[in-house]
Amino acid sequence: MRKIYYLKTCDTCKRIIKALSSTEGFEFQDIKEESVTVKQVEEMHALTGNYEVLFSKRAKLYKEMGLKDANLSESDFKRYILEHYTFLNRPVIIVEDQIFVGNSPKVVEQAIKALSNE
Predict the structure, then answer these.
(1) Which of 42, 56, 63, 94 has CB 3.0 to 4.6 Å from 89, enough for a Cys bridge?
(2) Tens digit of pLDDT for each residue in 54-74?
(3) Helical H segments across the chain, by residue range
(4) How many Cβ atoms are within 10 Å of 102's Cβ, its own excluded?
(5) In CATH, what is the architecture of 2-116?
(6) What predicted TM-score, i.e. pTM, was given to this entire model?
(7) What are the CA-CA distances from residue 55 to residues 75, 101, 115, 117, 118 (Å)?
(8) In the sheet where 27-30 sits, what is the strand order?
(9) Would the keyword Ion transport turn up in this protein's UniProt record (predicted)?
């Protein structure tokens, strides 16, 4: 599978997608227009090993809802990701059996490297 979950209004997502050597053959899903499904989140979880990695702690709602001070479980992270697109750490880039989550320079570099090795 080759897929990118992103937000088309996010300049950071656009910059990262542009930096990828090739996005040919990728399926793109704007998570605001087409919400992630339970199956999709579970597929991401199978590659990451936990839901917290997929969860954005930089989301405005995270702060507004006071979740920073809450002791969230794995099932809480999954539930919030499914409830509102803003809780999915983005972009999420899936290249076969590899997943790259978020916009840290290290993650972006790893995604670029994975694509250039193909």
Answers:
(1) 56
(2) 999 999 999 999 998 899 999
(3) 11-19, 38-48, 60-64, 74-83, 105-116
(4) 19
(5) 3-Layer(aba) Sandwich (3.40)
(6) 0.94
(7) 11, 9, 24, 28, 28
(8) 27-30, 2-6, 92-95, 98-101
(9) no
